[in-house]
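tokens incoming
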């Protein structure tokens, strides 16, 4: 049945989203779009708290301006070799992870998708992310680059999609960002991508997208975050704009494993240093993306909710998390941009 004149643009595919109110043509359509993109929200999208929260492996965050949710703990596969990536992803999925983060640059989108198919877990229960690193040279070429990723991850059949597609970096310049963002918006309109965001973007770069973006602000900003690189300017900005904050390198690539403060907290809570760092991110309201290809560490990284134990539950009881004083000690480790091991964003 065709849409009635004046009805808000909703498309036929169940994964399509309304265009924002300013792109609608009638008062009724604008009101419907405004309600869709601005539902009643809790006090903060990023449930930041210095005190322990009742978190579990199944905890999710609502994705702003969307009907979807995101698992609060992700599994990173940064440069996970293709010959081990499927096995690592399967280990993660079978132990309870439901969120995997890849990228075109990592070279393992196909392996991530293959692991999902081999797992036997319904696709609808798994949240998959990828990223475009560089523009194709034209809107159509950038669109095709992104479409290729969707097909690698979720197959060639109609109805395949990616849960979250990010622009990996603003380093290509303003025009490249515009080209890539408009390609992602087109994929959202076509139902091939559910949510869109950015990575390594500072405040000014996100603000600069306002001039042309149909979807603004981005729903996610993925940046380097850990106690030594807290990036407080951009995290505060993202929280104020209801942009979900994802944390890459939450384990600092094990470079801080001998830090005295971290070791003391690990001993106090009878947890590994990695578990302390992941729990820190969770209690800050961030979505950590710990990476490992070692089965023992994959299992340990999801056991940040107490109780120990194996299986997909990941320990649902026992440890109540870091205390407020623990969080303050970790907060005090911040070294600003000097603490980054990959990249701190530029906020001008």
């Amino acid at each position: 049945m065709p849409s009635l004149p004046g009805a808000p643009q909703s498309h036929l595919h169940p994964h399509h989203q309304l265009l924002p109110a300013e792109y609608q043509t009638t008062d009724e359509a604008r009101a419907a779009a405004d309600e869709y993109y601005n539902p009643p929200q809790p006090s903060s999208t990023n449930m930041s708290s210095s005190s322990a929260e009742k978190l579990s492996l199944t905890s999710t965050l609502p994705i702003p301006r969307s009907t979807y949710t995101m698992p609060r703990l992700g599994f990173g596969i940064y440069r996970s070799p293709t010959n081990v990536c499927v096995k690592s992803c399967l280990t993660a999925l079978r132990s309870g992870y439901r969120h995997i983060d890849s990228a075109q640059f990592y070279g393992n989108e196909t392996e991530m998708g293959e692991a999902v198919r081999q797992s036997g877990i319904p696709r609808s229960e798994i949240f998959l992310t990828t990223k475009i690193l560089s523009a194709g040279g034209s809107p159509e070429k950038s669109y095709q680059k992104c479409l290729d990723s969707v097909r690698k991850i979720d197959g060639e059949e109609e109805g395949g999609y990616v849960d979250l597609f990010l622009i990996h970096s603003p380093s290509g310049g303003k025009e490249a960002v515009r080209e890539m963002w408009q390609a992602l918006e087109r994929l959202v309109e076509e139902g091939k991508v559910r949510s869109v965001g950015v990575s390594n973007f500072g405040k000014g770069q996100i603000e600069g997208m306002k001039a042309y973006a149909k979807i603004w602000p981005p729903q996610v900003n993925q940046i380097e975050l850990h106690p030594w690189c807290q990036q407080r300017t951009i995290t505060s900005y993202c929280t104020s704009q209801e942009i979900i904050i994802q944390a890459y390198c939450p384990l600092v690539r094990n470079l801080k494993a001998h830090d005295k403060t971290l070791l003391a907290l690990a001993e106090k809570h009878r947890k590994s240093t990695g578990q302390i760092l992941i729990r820190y991110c969770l209690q800050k309201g961030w979505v950590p993306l710990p990476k490992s290809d070692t089965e023992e560490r994959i299992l340990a990284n999801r056991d940040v909710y107490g109780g120990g134990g194996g299986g997909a539950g990941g320990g649902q009881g026992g440890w109540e998390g870091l205390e407020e004083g623990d969080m303050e000690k970790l907060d005090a480790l911040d070294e600003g941009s000097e603490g980054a091991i990959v990249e701190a964003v530029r906020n001008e």
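note: The chain has eleven helices and ten strands.
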